[in-house]
Amino acid sequence: MKKINRETEPDFWIEYKRLHPNHSYMDLDKSRQGRETRKDLRNYLLRSQYGLCAYCCRSIGIEDSLNEHIKPQAKYPKQTMEYENIIVSCRSEGSTLTCGSKKANEYDEALFVSPLEACEGHFIFYPNGQIEGTGERGQYTCDLLNLNAYELQRARRTQYKICADYQNAELVHTYFLTPDEEGKQESFADMIQYFYERGDFGILNSE
């Protein structure tokens, strides 16, 4: 997980809420305008997230993602339309749920680490793809989001090996940490940044 530096709340979202002051997020599904606005919001938020899931940081697009409420809708019904409560998470199905799909309505405000805060210090990574919390909040969040699901560990391990094989920190920074022309980063930029700063990919330029 890495901190998301949000763009300001979009005018189209502000305008929708002005025109529909009594709507909850679930009401968006009742009209074509609502559904289009929901999709527009996802596209807008994905740009702030460099095309990455806000939780696990794997690459996602509009079709394999969902608008995720940090504070669950069922427990915080008055905050379902609040811009600061909505991010974009990957969509997972089947027996191994992760991220927003796994979190669902489980949430402890005192323990959950939000990607909208300075979150990086709450987690450590290992070359085998594992992630752990550095304290109670980080570990609670890892467990709640199932960030050590086998598929995630395997994908992180593969990405780590690719970066390590470069044996050049600056090339890793250029190709894996710098957004491309479409404003997207490579999967698991949070893990790559962790090992980049630790020096796993070569000696950093001190200038």
Give the arrangement of secondary structure elements.
Blueprint: H1 11-19, H2 32-48, E1 65-69, E2 86-90, H3 99-103, E3 123-125, E4 131-133, H4 136-145, H5 150-166, H6 169-177, H7 189-198
Antiparallel strand pairs: 1-2, 3-4
Helix pairs in contact: 6-7
Model description:
The structure is a single chain. The chain is mainly α and 207 residues long. Helices cover 37% and strands 8% of the residues. Helix 6 (169-177) runs antiparallel to helix 7. The longest helix is centred in the N-terminal third of the chain and has 17 residues, at 32-48. It is globular and about 55 Å long. The model has no long low-confidence stretch (mean pLDDT 95).
Key traits:
207 residues; mainly alpha; two-stranded antiparallel sheet; two-stranded antiparallel ribbon; 7 helices; 4 strands; 37% helix
